Automatic annotation (TrEMBL):
GO terms for biological process: regulation of glutamine family amino acid metabolic process. Residues 1-448 are annotated as: Adenylyl removase. Residues 456-948 are annotated as: Adenylyl transferase. Residues 306-444, 823-905 form the PII-uridylyltransferase/Glutamine-synthetase adenylyltransferase domain. Keywords: ATP-binding, Ligase, Magnesium, Multifunctional enzyme, Nucleotide-binding, Nucleotidyltransferase, Transferase. It catalyses: [glutamine synthetase]-L-tyrosine + ATP = [glutamine synthetase]-O(4)-(5'-adenylyl)-L-tyrosine + diphosphate; [glutamine synthetase]-O(4)-(5'-adenylyl)-L-tyrosine + phosphate = [glutamine synthetase]-L-tyrosine + ADP. The gene is glnE. Its cofactor is Mg(2+). This is Bifunctional glutamine synthetase adenylyltransferase/adenylyl-removing enzyme. The keyword Protein transport does not apply. The keyword Phosphoprotein does not apply. It comes from Pseudoxanthomonas suwonensis (strain 11-1). GO terms for molecular function: [glutamate-ammonia-ligase] adenylyltransferase activity; [glutamine synthetase]-adenylyl-L-tyrosine phosphorylase activity; ATP binding; ligase activity; magnesium ion binding.
């Protein structure tokens, strides 16, 4: 019976996994035992023989290398075989170099096979080991050739007379530190400066380094009796095979500025200097960063990806490469493209995404919220699985292949060596893996399918400007269909639209109908449309922003929603399209950075300028725009109280002023030296000091300094202290108001300084103290209630605080104080209150914000002499809370005033966001809040009404 035969026959079938293992083990062991007596002696060790058998199942290349190099088996017999000693190329025997390198590479590669198959290394370690091996061979070969070239041709020197070396850039997986087991290496040769070598047979730098590079490639790549060392591919250099072999940095700069293509951004994303002058190469790569990573979100990267993917698919179909692990559907290349595309899209804004190694970049994308954690984990697992499988395919015969073996035995060997019972279970695992990768890749490439516009609006747009009916817009939901039609028609015939390239026009034809549909569904269709057309006009020449709206339906919908509800944000986005990036920032719906984080962000922006004041100022402006935009969105969406938003705007201004002061001080010190022992501080008054800054508010600033009256700066152009600090204050004001491509930082108002506009821009601490204690008006002491240091020397800030406390804590005659406060408020109401019968002025009207501020300031000045706790808070909510805790006002009244303050601030912020004057129609709720303020004012005996 077959069953009894199976039970008694000890010989496994050659077609089973066990039979395959036994047959290949016998072959490997027999081959090695016959190689030499030393082999035979070593293989008497059963444990070593078992390990060789496992290696023989997976790699004919490794067994052949062990046969050729008897000492290698003894080295690998250790429990944890160490790296092999590096080879030495004898300068007196250049004919031996190729053999030495090839034998070393074969031995070191066999060690990698051994460690992988026996479970001593994971796939990450194998990829890193393959990379390190290639770098070692490159470095050893290049150093030998450089010595030879120096003897024959001398060296090429830079303008300072220092010797130059060839710069070898590694691209692709070599650059990323994730080289395949049997991969070619993508190299680009460069050098820092043109010139001539200084030997007797002098060569121009281009020819010198080209010859050196060609010799290097030949030494590594040429097939000899010992095989090859590393296959070298130079086709990724500028202009490919048609381009020169070695390029100067200056020539590379010109090429990428004028000729650089989308696919090269992907190629150079992983670029790393792998041999030669490492420092020079890495410094130059930093200058290439703007080519690879755009400053803003760049969805045009997907165009290049689609083109590359289409070319690969066409090649796959033409050559029937469905089993290709690298280029096939759901293969390694799709994971690489997915990660690199997201890096290119966002890396200009997020430095953490600029990594060369794929798995680290994938993790950064997960941490940055661009890929869901579960998707990131699945892609990382798939990548490691596919790379290990690809390595095993290449380890069979040390062949540069990416497809699974076509023969049945080859597939079985791969599967069994990886621990599967046969090909079928491995094939099932592979199919599941590739399906997951393919789904993730498609999700990146085809998001636009989710934004298809209604056919009627699409047809309407495509008929413009010659045809098209306004009734389509009326049916869609626009109230003034005629006006909307005229506006859209004018846009369609504008020069900007007519001048678009075919590709950009294609994007516009997809975007406009979708925008029309979203605007029609918004809260204010006609307003949204007007604002959208203004924005589109401003971004027509910016392909990256059209691409963003085309590729990201979520951004398109969010944009229309924001524009429909906020004229201010509509203006800002149209003026600074970089804010479109914020609509896709996953952090935009999260918590707003705190004060410390804002300081860090502003400092990082200035640092990114690399010492260029103009670049630093632009970057600082961009950070200010982005953060204020996030605060505005939080206010617009009612995700936080208005009082939180105005406080955050004040924090942001603090952070900006601190950086501007540092920049200004650097400029003044550079020109005039320092004032020994001098101190400087910026004091914020008004809404800045009170942490209630609005969108677009100017900054009320006072500048203080403290220095020896005789002090003079120590620079080449010395200034006495007063002039030095005046120059510093002027620089601060100038930088805050300087116009950059991202606008200006802040308008400033210095009228609250001692003696107002008649005085010097900066005051000494002594003169400021004397003024506040002896000559200041009551209204100036009211202003001092909200004043605080926002930047500068901390000790001077403390001294300012002491002057402020002494001034505010002076005993005052209550009746005289009340008369002064009321008189000033009546005057302001008469001059500034814009309320009328139908509308109420939120700031200056009766019962408005200024009435409340004057009430609080009056109480602080009246009570501070006996209540030191009132001297610390600057903002209205905390001042009110302190008035309650100190018993100056009862708790119920303070709560009613707090609610009134919150309501008034929120209403005012809403007006600002929609670019409306802070004049609102009275309603029952608002009247109630005003009444609370008016009642509290009257309860203190203050009369603010001008008619009273």
């Amino acid at each position: 019976m077959p069953q009894s035969v199976a039970m008694t026959d000890p010989t496994p079938s050659p077609n089973t996994a066990a039979g395959l293992r036994e047959r290949l083990a016998d072959r490997a062991l027999s081959l090695l035992r016959a190689a030499s007596p030393r082999h035979a002696e070593l293989l008497q060790q059963a444990d070593l023989a078992g390990r060789v058998a496992r290696v023989g199942l997976a790699s004919d290349f490794a067994i052949e290398t062990l046969r050729r190099q008897p000492a290698l088996l003894e080295h690998l017999a250790a429990d944890d075989p160490a790296p092999l000693p590096l080879p030495v190329l004898d300068p007196l025997q250049p004919s031996e170099w190729a053999g030495v390198l090839r034998r070393y590479r074969a031995a070191a590669s066999t060690r990698l096979v051994w460690r992988d198959i026996l479970g001593l290394d994971d796939v990450d370690a194998t990829l890193a080991g393959s990379t390190e091996l290639a770098e070692q061979c490159l470095a050893i070969a290049l150093e030998a050739l450089e010595r030879e070239f120096a003897e024959r041709h001398g060296v090429v020197r830079d303008p300072a007379g220092n010797p130059q070396r060839l710069v070898v850039f590694g691209l692709g997986k070599l650059g990323g530190g994730e080289l395949n087991f049997s991969s070619d290496i993508d190299l680009v040769y460069a050098y820092a400066h043109d010139g001539d070598s200084d030997g007797r047979r002098s060569l121009a730098a281009e020819e010198y380094f080209a010859r050196l590079g060609q010799r290097l490639a030949k030494l590594l790549d040429e097939v000899t009796a010992d095989g090859f060392c590393h296959r070298v591919d130079l086709r990724l250099r500028p202009f490919g095979n048609a381009g020169r072999v070695a390029w100067s940095f200056a020539a590379m700069d010109q090429y990428f500025q004028r000729e650089g293509r989308d696919w090269e951004r992907y190629a150079w994303l992983k670029a790393r200097t792998v041999a030669g002058d490492i420092a020079a190469g890495e410094a130059w790569l930093e200058t290439l960063r703007p080519f690879v990573y755009r400053r803003y979100l760049d969805f045009t990267a997907l165009d290049g990806l689609r083109a590359m993917k289409a070319a690969i698919v066409a090649e796959m179909q033409r050559r029937d490469m469905a089993d290709d692990l690298k280029r096939g559907r759901g293969g390694i290349r799709e994971i690489e493209f997915l990660v690199q595309s997201l890096q290119l899209i966002r890396g200009g804004r997020e430095p953490a995404l600029r990594g060369r190694r794929l798995l680290l970049a994938l993790q950064a994308l997960v941490e940055g919220g661009q890929i869901a954690p579960e998707d990131g984990a699945a892609l990382a697992e798939a990548y490691r699985f596919l790379r290990r499988l690809e390595n095993r395919v290449q380890m069979l015969a040390d062949a540069q292949v990416h497809s699974l073996p076509e023969d049945e035995e080859g597939r079985e060997r791969i599967a069994v060596a990886l621990g599967y019972e046969g090909w079928a279970p491995l094939a099932a695992t592979l199919a599941t893996c590739r399906a997951r990768v393919s789904a993730e890749f498609d999700a990146l490439l085809v998001p636009r399918r989710g934004q298809s516009a209604p056919d009627a609006l699409e047809g309407y747009w495509r008929l413009l400007p010659q045809a098209g009916e306004a009734t389509v817009l009326a049916d869609a939901g626009f109230n003034d269909a005629g006006g909307a039609d005229a506006a859209v028609r004018d846009f369609a015939r504008s020069n900007g639209v007519r001048a678009l390239s075919d590709a950009a026009r294609g994007r516009l034809d997809r975007v406009v109908p979708a925008l029309l549909g979203a605007a029609a569904r918004s809260a204010q269709p006609d307003a949204a449309l007007r604002r959208l057309l203004g924005l589109l006009q401003s971004i027509l020449r910016r392909a990256s922003y059209l691409a963003l709206l085309d590729e990201q339906p979520s951004a398109l919908g969010r944009l229309v929603d924001v524009l429909a509800r906020s004229a201010l944000l509509a203006e800002r986005i149209a003026a600074y399209p970089l804010l479109l990036d914020e609509l896709l920032d996953v952090r935009v719906a999260g918590p707003i950075p705190d004060a410390a984080e804002m300081h860090q962000a502003c400092a990082a922006a200035v640092d990114s300028g690399d010492g260029d004041p103009e670049a630093a100022l632009r970057a600082l402006n961009e950070v200010r725009l982005a953060l204020s935009f996030r605060i505005a969105l939080a206010a617009l969406d009612h995700r936080q109280p208005a009082v939180d938003s105005v406080r955050q705007l004040a924090w942001l201004a603090d952070a900006v002023v601190a950086q501007v002061l540092a920049m200004a001080e650097g400029e003044v010190v550079g020109a005039h030296g320092r004032i020994e022992g001098g101190r400087f501080a910026v004091v914020g008054y008004g809404s800045l000091g009170g942490c209630e800054l609005g969108f677009g508010s100017d900054l009320d600033l006072v500048f203080l300094y403290d220095a020896d009256g005789e002090a003079v700066s120590d620079g080449r152009r010395p200034l006495e202290a007063g002039r030095w600090y005046a120059r510093l204050a002027q620089k601060v004001v100038g930088l805050l108001g300087a116009v950059t491509s991202a606008g200006r930082l802040y308008e400033t108002d210095m009228r609250l300084r001692p003696d107002g506009g008649k005085s010097l821009l900066v005051s000494s601490l002594a003169s400021y103290s004397e003024y506040q204690l002896h000559r200041a008006w009551t209204w100036e002491h009211q202003a001092l209630v909200r004043a605080r240091m926002v930047a500068g020397d901390a000790s001077l800030g403390a001294d300012f605080g002491q002057v402020r406390r002494e001034t505010l804590a002076r005993p005052r005659d209550a009746a005289a104080l009340a008369a002064d406060v009321a008189s000033m408020r009546r005057r302001m109401r008469a001059e500034l209150d814009r309320s009328d019968a139908a509308r109420f002025d939120l700031k200056q009207g009766a019962g408005g914000l200024v009435d409340l501020e004057f009430l609080v300031q009056y109480l602080v000045l009246r009570e501070a002499a006996g209540c030191a706790a009132l001297l610390e808070p600057r903002d209205t909510p905390r001042l009110l809370a302190t008035l309650a805790s100190e018993g100056v006002l009862d708790t119920d009244m303070v709560e009613s005033l707090r609610q009134a303050h919150s309501a008034l601030v929120e209403a005012g912020l809403g007006c600002t966001l929609d670019r409306r004057p802070r004049l609102v129609a009275s309603d029952e709720a608002l009247d109630a809040q005003r009444a609370r303020v008016t009642a509290a004012v009257a309860a203190q005996g203050l009369v603010f009404d001008p008619e009273a």
